[in-house]
Amino acid sequence: MSGRVHGQVDRAFRAVREVFEADFANGQNVGAAVAVFVDGRAVVDLWGGAADARTGRPWVHDTPAITFSCTKAVTATAALAVAHETGVDWEAPVTNWWPEYGAAGKGATVLADLLTHSAGLPVLEQPATVEQAADPAAMAALLARQRPLWQPGTEHGYHALTFGWLVGEFVRRRTDSTVGEFVRRRFGDDLWIGAPPEVIARAARVGFPPAAERAWTDSTATDAAVLRLAQAYQDPDSLLMRGSTNPMASANKPEVLAGGWPASGLVTTARGLARFYRDLVAGTLLPPSILREAVREQVRGPDAVLVQESAFGLGYMLPAQNFVLPAAARPTAFGHPGAGGALGLGDLTHRVAIAFVPNLRRDWLSGDRRAYDLVRAVYDAL
User: Fold this and answer.
1) How far apart are CA 377 and CA 382, in angstroms?
2) Which sign, positive or negative, has the C-alpha torsion 134, 138, 144, 148?
Protein backbone atom coordinates (compact mmCIF):
# COMPACT_ATOMS: atom_id res chain seq x y z
CA MET A 1 0.00 0.00 0.00
CA SER A 2 1.38 3.40 -0.94
CA GLY A 3 2.31 5.78 1.83
CA ARG A 4 0.98 8.72 -0.14
CA VAL A 5 -0.15 11.58 2.10
CA HIS A 6 -3.47 13.36 1.63
CA GLY A 7 -5.01 16.44 3.18
CA GLN A 8 -4.21 20.10 3.69
CA VAL A 9 -1.51 22.09 5.44
CA ASP A 10 -1.02 25.82 5.87
CA ARG A 11 2.08 26.99 3.99
CA ALA A 12 3.72 28.14 7.22
CA PHE A 13 3.50 24.56 8.52
CA ARG A 14 4.70 22.74 5.40
CA ALA A 15 7.60 21.28 7.41
CA VAL A 16 5.01 19.22 9.33
CA ARG A 17 3.96 17.61 6.07
CA GLU A 18 7.59 16.96 5.17
CA VAL A 19 8.17 15.16 8.48
CA PHE A 20 4.94 13.18 8.08
CA GLU A 21 5.78 12.16 4.51
CA ALA A 22 9.33 11.18 5.49
CA ASP A 23 8.02 8.73 8.08
CA PHE A 24 6.07 6.93 5.38
CA ALA A 25 9.05 6.95 3.04
CA ASN A 26 11.37 5.45 5.65
CA GLY A 27 8.87 2.84 6.83
CA GLN A 28 8.16 4.36 10.25
CA ASN A 29 4.44 4.58 9.48
CA VAL A 30 2.02 2.11 7.91
CA GLY A 31 -1.04 4.31 8.34
CA ALA A 32 -1.42 7.49 10.35
CA ALA A 33 -2.97 10.92 10.64
CA VAL A 34 -1.87 14.22 12.16
CA ALA A 35 -3.93 17.33 12.88
CA VAL A 36 -2.95 20.71 14.31
CA PHE A 37 -4.91 23.80 15.37
CA VAL A 38 -3.33 27.14 16.23
CA ASP A 39 -5.53 29.87 17.73
CA GLY A 40 -8.50 27.67 16.89
CA ARG A 41 -7.62 27.52 13.18
CA ALA A 42 -6.83 24.25 11.42
CA VAL A 43 -3.29 24.47 10.03
CA VAL A 44 -2.56 20.77 9.50
CA ASP A 45 -4.96 17.98 8.55
CA LEU A 46 -3.09 15.07 6.98
CA TRP A 47 -3.51 11.33 6.64
CA GLY A 48 -2.05 8.51 4.61
CA GLY A 49 -1.02 4.92 4.22
CA ALA A 50 -2.97 1.80 5.05
CA ALA A 51 -5.60 1.45 7.73
CA ASP A 52 -5.17 -2.33 7.48
CA ALA A 53 -1.81 -3.63 6.29
CA ARG A 54 -3.24 -7.10 5.70
CA THR A 55 -5.82 -6.02 3.14
CA GLY A 56 -4.36 -2.73 1.92
CA ARG A 57 -7.49 -0.85 2.99
CA PRO A 58 -6.46 2.80 2.76
CA TRP A 59 -6.43 5.29 5.59
CA VAL A 60 -9.01 7.90 4.58
CA HIS A 61 -9.98 11.28 5.99
CA ASP A 62 -12.31 9.82 8.62
CA THR A 63 -10.47 6.62 9.58
CA PRO A 64 -10.70 6.22 13.37
CA ALA A 65 -8.10 4.39 15.45
CA ILE A 66 -7.59 3.40 19.05
CA THR A 67 -5.39 5.94 20.84
CA PHE A 68 -4.63 3.97 24.01
CA SER A 69 -3.63 6.23 26.93
CA CYS A 70 -4.48 9.43 25.08
CA THR A 71 -7.86 8.44 26.56
CA LYS A 72 -6.76 9.47 30.05
CA ALA A 73 -6.72 13.20 29.30
CA VAL A 74 -10.26 12.99 27.93
CA THR A 75 -11.50 11.05 30.96
CA ALA A 76 -9.75 13.49 33.30
CA THR A 77 -11.42 16.42 31.54
CA ALA A 78 -14.80 14.77 32.01
CA ALA A 79 -14.13 14.38 35.73
CA LEU A 80 -12.95 17.97 36.08
CA ALA A 81 -16.04 19.23 34.28
CA VAL A 82 -18.30 17.20 36.55
CA ALA A 83 -16.43 18.34 39.66
CA HIS A 84 -16.84 21.97 38.62
CA GLU A 85 -20.52 21.62 37.79
CA THR A 86 -21.43 19.68 40.93
CA GLY A 87 -19.26 21.68 43.31
CA VAL A 88 -17.06 18.76 44.32
CA ASP A 89 -13.64 19.77 45.65
CA TRP A 90 -10.92 17.48 44.30
CA GLU A 91 -9.27 17.65 47.73
CA ALA A 92 -12.37 16.21 49.41
CA PRO A 93 -12.47 12.49 50.36
CA VAL A 94 -13.54 10.04 47.69
CA THR A 95 -15.81 8.42 50.27
CA ASN A 96 -18.05 11.51 50.12
CA TRP A 97 -19.37 10.21 46.79
CA TRP A 98 -18.15 6.58 46.85
CA PRO A 99 -18.58 5.29 50.43
CA GLU A 100 -17.43 1.74 49.63
CA TYR A 101 -14.04 3.05 48.53
CA GLY A 102 -12.98 3.61 52.13
CA ALA A 103 -12.30 -0.11 52.63
CA ALA A 104 -8.81 -1.51 53.18
CA GLY A 105 -7.18 1.68 54.39
CA LYS A 106 -8.26 4.01 51.56
CA GLY A 107 -10.53 6.31 53.57
CA ALA A 108 -8.27 9.36 53.26
CA THR A 109 -7.99 9.16 49.45
CA VAL A 110 -9.14 12.31 47.63
CA LEU A 111 -10.18 12.83 44.01
CA ALA A 112 -6.84 14.52 43.28
CA ASP A 113 -5.08 11.28 44.28
CA LEU A 114 -7.03 9.43 41.61
CA LEU A 115 -6.22 12.07 38.99
CA THR A 116 -2.49 12.19 39.79
CA HIS A 117 -1.85 8.42 39.82
CA SER A 118 -1.29 8.64 43.58
CA ALA A 119 -4.08 6.31 44.73
CA GLY A 120 -1.84 3.27 45.24
CA LEU A 121 -3.96 1.01 43.02
CA PRO A 122 -1.88 0.69 39.82
CA VAL A 123 -2.78 -2.98 39.35
CA LEU A 124 -5.89 -5.11 39.55
CA GLU A 125 -5.03 -7.83 42.06
CA GLN A 126 -7.84 -10.07 40.81
CA PRO A 127 -7.72 -11.36 37.21
CA ALA A 128 -10.35 -9.64 35.08
CA THR A 129 -11.95 -10.61 31.80
CA VAL A 130 -12.63 -8.40 28.80
CA GLU A 131 -16.33 -8.73 29.60
CA GLN A 132 -15.78 -7.47 33.15
CA ALA A 133 -13.66 -4.58 31.86
CA ALA A 134 -16.66 -3.35 29.88
CA ASP A 135 -18.70 -3.05 33.10
CA PRO A 136 -17.51 0.07 34.96
CA ALA A 137 -19.53 -0.76 38.08
CA ALA A 138 -17.95 -4.21 38.33
CA MET A 139 -14.44 -2.80 37.89
CA ALA A 140 -15.09 -0.09 40.47
CA ALA A 141 -16.28 -2.70 42.95
CA LEU A 142 -13.08 -4.72 42.48
CA LEU A 143 -10.93 -1.65 43.12
CA ALA A 144 -12.98 -0.49 46.10
CA ARG A 145 -12.13 -3.74 47.90
CA GLN A 146 -8.39 -3.60 47.21
CA ARG A 147 -5.71 -2.51 49.63
CA PRO A 148 -3.43 0.20 48.21
CA LEU A 149 0.23 -0.59 47.55
CA TRP A 150 1.23 2.68 49.22
CA GLN A 151 -0.50 5.21 51.41
CA PRO A 152 -2.62 7.27 49.01
CA GLY A 153 -1.15 10.66 48.27
CA THR A 154 2.37 9.84 49.48
CA GLU A 155 3.85 8.77 46.12
CA HIS A 156 2.73 8.28 42.54
CA GLY A 157 2.91 5.45 40.04
CA TYR A 158 1.28 5.16 36.64
CA HIS A 159 -2.21 3.60 36.83
CA ALA A 160 -2.21 2.33 33.23
CA LEU A 161 -5.70 0.81 33.24
CA THR A 162 -7.10 1.39 36.72
CA PHE A 163 -6.95 5.19 36.28
CA GLY A 164 -9.98 4.97 34.01
CA TRP A 165 -12.19 2.94 36.31
CA LEU A 166 -11.23 5.03 39.35
CA VAL A 167 -11.69 8.46 37.78
CA GLY A 168 -14.57 7.21 35.66
CA GLU A 169 -16.47 6.11 38.74
CA PHE A 170 -16.67 9.74 39.81
CA VAL A 171 -18.26 10.66 36.47
CA ARG A 172 -20.60 7.67 36.64
CA ARG A 173 -21.80 8.32 40.17
CA ARG A 174 -22.34 12.04 39.69
CA THR A 175 -23.98 11.93 36.22
CA ASP A 176 -25.49 8.43 35.88
CA SER A 177 -23.51 8.22 32.63
CA THR A 178 -20.48 6.24 31.61
CA VAL A 179 -17.42 8.27 30.69
CA GLY A 180 -18.03 7.39 27.05
CA GLU A 181 -21.60 8.65 27.14
CA PHE A 182 -20.61 11.86 28.89
CA VAL A 183 -17.71 12.54 26.53
CA ARG A 184 -19.72 12.09 23.33
CA ARG A 185 -22.55 14.20 24.67
CA ARG A 186 -20.34 17.03 25.88
CA PHE A 187 -16.99 16.97 24.08
CA GLY A 188 -17.56 15.61 20.58
CA ASP A 189 -19.49 12.95 18.73
CA ASP A 190 -16.30 11.59 17.15
CA LEU A 191 -14.72 10.69 20.50
CA TRP A 192 -15.74 7.09 21.13
CA ILE A 193 -14.89 5.52 24.48
CA GLY A 194 -16.92 2.47 23.58
CA ALA A 195 -17.10 2.38 19.78
CA PRO A 196 -20.27 1.25 17.97
CA PRO A 197 -20.11 -1.48 15.28
CA GLU A 198 -20.04 0.91 12.34
CA VAL A 199 -17.02 2.73 13.80
CA ILE A 200 -15.23 -0.52 14.62
CA ALA A 201 -15.71 -1.64 11.02
CA ARG A 202 -13.88 1.47 9.78
CA ALA A 203 -11.18 1.51 12.46
CA ALA A 204 -7.52 1.14 11.64
CA ARG A 205 -5.97 -2.19 12.52
CA VAL A 206 -3.09 -2.00 14.97
CA GLY A 207 0.15 -3.68 13.97
CA PHE A 208 3.70 -4.10 15.24
CA PRO A 209 7.03 -3.72 13.46
CA PRO A 210 9.33 -6.73 12.94
CA ALA A 211 10.90 -8.07 16.12
CA ALA A 212 14.32 -6.69 15.19
CA GLU A 213 12.87 -3.17 15.10
CA ARG A 214 11.46 -3.60 18.59
CA ALA A 215 14.85 -4.26 20.16
CA TRP A 216 16.19 -1.54 22.42
CA THR A 217 19.13 0.27 20.87
CA ASP A 218 22.55 0.38 22.48
CA SER A 219 22.35 4.17 22.80
CA THR A 220 19.14 4.16 24.82
CA ALA A 221 20.21 1.21 26.95
CA THR A 222 23.12 3.23 28.35
CA ASP A 223 20.66 5.55 30.09
CA ALA A 224 20.06 4.07 33.55
CA ALA A 225 16.44 5.24 33.78
CA VAL A 226 15.58 3.86 30.36
CA LEU A 227 17.34 0.60 31.16
CA ARG A 228 15.21 0.24 34.31
CA LEU A 229 12.09 0.74 32.23
CA ALA A 230 13.28 -1.78 29.64
CA GLN A 231 13.83 -4.31 32.43
CA ALA A 232 10.35 -3.63 33.82
CA TYR A 233 8.84 -4.36 30.39
CA GLN A 234 10.68 -7.69 30.36
CA ASP A 235 9.56 -8.72 33.85
CA PRO A 236 6.02 -10.15 33.94
CA ASP A 237 5.89 -9.56 37.70
CA SER A 238 6.74 -5.84 37.52
CA LEU A 239 4.07 -3.33 38.46
CA LEU A 240 4.28 -2.01 34.91
CA MET A 241 3.40 -5.32 33.31
CA ARG A 242 0.89 -6.34 35.97
CA GLY A 243 -0.84 -2.99 35.61
CA SER A 244 -1.04 -2.96 31.83
CA THR A 245 -1.89 -6.59 31.01
CA ASN A 246 -4.93 -7.32 33.19
CA PRO A 247 -7.13 -7.95 31.37
CA MET A 248 -4.97 -9.25 28.56
CA ALA A 249 -6.56 -8.45 25.21
CA SER A 250 -5.80 -7.40 21.66
CA ALA A 251 -6.72 -3.85 20.71
CA ASN A 252 -7.98 -5.23 17.38
CA LYS A 253 -10.74 -7.25 19.03
CA PRO A 254 -14.20 -5.70 18.50
CA GLU A 255 -15.13 -6.42 22.12
CA VAL A 256 -12.18 -4.33 23.31
CA LEU A 257 -12.94 -1.41 20.98
CA ALA A 258 -16.57 -1.56 22.09
CA GLY A 259 -15.70 -2.01 25.77
CA GLY A 260 -15.34 1.64 26.69
CA TRP A 261 -12.19 1.25 28.79
CA PRO A 262 -11.87 4.79 30.16
CA ALA A 263 -8.06 4.74 30.51
CA SER A 264 -7.11 3.26 27.15
CA GLY A 265 -10.12 2.74 24.90
CA LEU A 266 -10.63 6.04 23.06
CA VAL A 267 -11.26 5.48 19.35
CA THR A 268 -11.11 8.65 17.30
CA THR A 269 -9.46 10.43 14.40
CA ALA A 270 -6.46 12.73 14.71
CA ARG A 271 -8.81 15.54 13.72
CA GLY A 272 -11.24 14.60 16.50
CA LEU A 273 -8.52 14.41 19.14
CA ALA A 274 -6.97 17.71 18.02
CA ARG A 275 -10.41 19.34 18.11
CA PHE A 276 -10.79 18.14 21.69
CA TYR A 277 -7.57 19.95 22.64
CA ARG A 278 -8.55 22.98 20.55
CA ASP A 279 -11.78 23.29 22.51
CA LEU A 280 -10.02 22.60 25.80
CA VAL A 281 -7.44 25.35 25.16
CA ALA A 282 -10.20 27.72 24.02
CA GLY A 283 -12.04 27.36 27.33
CA THR A 284 -15.19 25.73 25.98
CA LEU A 285 -14.80 22.38 27.78
CA LEU A 286 -13.54 23.72 31.12
CA PRO A 287 -13.44 27.21 32.60
CA PRO A 288 -9.95 28.64 31.94
CA SER A 289 -9.23 28.96 35.67
CA ILE A 290 -9.98 25.26 36.20
CA LEU A 291 -7.79 24.22 33.29
CA ARG A 292 -4.90 26.40 34.44
CA GLU A 293 -5.03 24.69 37.84
CA ALA A 294 -5.37 21.27 36.24
CA VAL A 295 -2.25 21.67 34.10
CA ARG A 296 -0.21 22.96 37.02
CA GLU A 297 2.30 20.38 38.20
CA GLN A 298 0.87 18.34 41.08
CA VAL A 299 3.41 15.52 41.25
CA ARG A 300 6.86 14.95 39.75
CA GLY A 301 9.60 12.49 40.52
CA PRO A 302 10.37 8.76 40.46
CA ASP A 303 7.34 6.83 39.26
CA ALA A 304 6.68 3.66 41.26
CA VAL A 305 5.44 1.87 38.13
CA LEU A 306 7.36 3.42 35.23
CA VAL A 307 10.58 3.40 37.32
CA GLN A 308 11.67 6.77 35.92
CA GLU A 309 10.60 10.38 36.31
CA SER A 310 7.01 11.24 35.49
CA ALA A 311 4.95 14.35 36.13
CA PHE A 312 1.21 14.99 36.25
CA GLY A 313 -1.26 17.75 36.68
CA LEU A 314 -4.84 16.74 37.47
CA GLY A 315 -5.01 13.90 34.97
CA TYR A 316 -2.83 15.52 32.32
CA MET A 317 0.70 14.27 31.76
CA LEU A 318 3.45 16.87 31.77
CA PRO A 319 6.84 16.71 30.02
CA ALA A 320 9.28 14.43 31.86
CA GLN A 321 11.49 11.40 31.18
CA ASN A 322 8.49 9.35 30.14
CA PHE A 323 6.90 12.17 28.08
CA VAL A 324 9.71 13.60 26.01
CA LEU A 325 8.93 16.78 24.07
CA PRO A 326 11.08 19.30 22.17
CA ALA A 327 12.57 22.14 24.22
CA ALA A 328 10.14 24.75 22.88
CA ALA A 329 7.13 22.74 24.07
CA ARG A 330 8.35 21.64 27.50
CA PRO A 331 7.53 24.72 29.58
CA THR A 332 3.87 24.98 28.55
CA ALA A 333 2.61 21.80 26.84
CA PHE A 334 0.37 19.22 28.48
CA GLY A 335 -1.65 16.26 27.30
CA HIS A 336 -1.11 12.52 27.11
CA PRO A 337 0.73 10.07 24.88
CA GLY A 338 -0.66 6.68 23.99
CA ALA A 339 1.04 3.30 23.69
CA GLY A 340 2.96 2.84 20.50
CA GLY A 341 3.27 6.47 19.46
CA ALA A 342 -0.10 8.26 19.60
CA LEU A 343 -0.20 11.74 21.10
CA GLY A 344 -2.70 14.39 22.15
CA LEU A 345 -1.25 17.74 23.21
CA GLY A 346 -2.43 21.21 24.19
CA ASP A 347 -0.65 24.44 25.02
CA LEU A 348 -2.42 27.40 26.62
CA THR A 349 0.44 29.83 26.03
CA HIS A 350 0.89 29.10 22.33
CA ARG A 351 -2.81 28.28 21.74
CA VAL A 352 -1.80 25.03 20.09
CA ALA A 353 -3.59 21.68 19.80
CA ILE A 354 -1.85 18.67 18.23
CA ALA A 355 -2.86 15.05 17.66
CA PHE A 356 -0.96 12.21 16.03
CA VAL A 357 -2.66 8.85 15.57
CA PRO A 358 -0.73 5.91 14.00
CA ASN A 359 -1.61 2.24 13.66
CA LEU A 360 1.96 0.90 13.75
CA ARG A 361 2.84 0.51 17.43
CA ARG A 362 6.42 1.58 17.77
CA ASP A 363 8.04 2.25 21.13
CA TRP A 364 10.19 5.21 22.07
CA LEU A 365 12.60 2.79 23.75
CA SER A 366 13.41 1.71 20.20
CA GLY A 367 13.97 5.28 19.10
CA ASP A 368 10.43 6.17 17.98
CA ARG A 369 10.52 9.90 17.24
CA ARG A 370 7.45 10.27 15.03
CA ALA A 371 5.33 12.38 17.42
CA TYR A 372 8.38 14.23 18.76
CA ASP A 373 9.47 15.32 15.27
CA LEU A 374 5.95 16.43 14.35
CA VAL A 375 5.63 18.49 17.52
CA ARG A 376 9.03 20.06 16.91
CA ALA A 377 8.04 21.01 13.36
CA VAL A 378 4.85 22.64 14.69
CA TYR A 379 6.66 24.70 17.31
CA ASP A 380 9.37 25.69 14.81
CA ALA A 381 6.61 27.13 12.60
CA LEU A 382 4.91 29.20 15.28
Assistant:
1) 9
2) negative
Q: Tell me which residue of 247, 244, 249, 275 sits closest to 338, measured CA to CA.
A: 244
Provide the terminal-to-terminal Cα distance of the chain, rounded to the nearest Å.
Answer: 33
Sort strands 5-9 and 31-38 into parallel, antiparallel or unpaired. unpaired
**9 falls within a domain:** yes
Per-residue pLDDT tens over the stretch 153-177: 999 999 999 999 999 999 999 999 9
Residue 61 lies in a domain: yes
Per-residue pLDDT tens digits for 208-239: 887 776 655 444 444 677 777 778 888 888 99
pTM, two decimal places: 0.96
The answer to whether residue 340 sits within a structural domain is: yes
Q: Residue 370: which CATH number?
A: 3.40.710.10
Residue 49 belongs to a domain = yes
State the Cα–Cα distance between residues 16 and 7, nearest whole angstrom.
12
Can you spell out the DSSP letters for 117-161? T-SS--S-SS---HHHHT-HHHHHHHHHHSPPSS-TTS-----TT
Q: What is the pLDDT of residues 68-84, one digit of tens each?
A: 999 999 999 999 999 99
Name the domain count of the chain. Answer: 1
CA distance 29 to 330: 25
Going by C-alpha positions, the residue among 121, 110, 106 that lies closest to residue 159 is 121
Three-state DSSP class for residue 38: strand
Coil, helix or strand for 195?
Answer: coil
Q: Which domain holds residue 25?
A: 5-72+181-380
Amino acid at 229: L
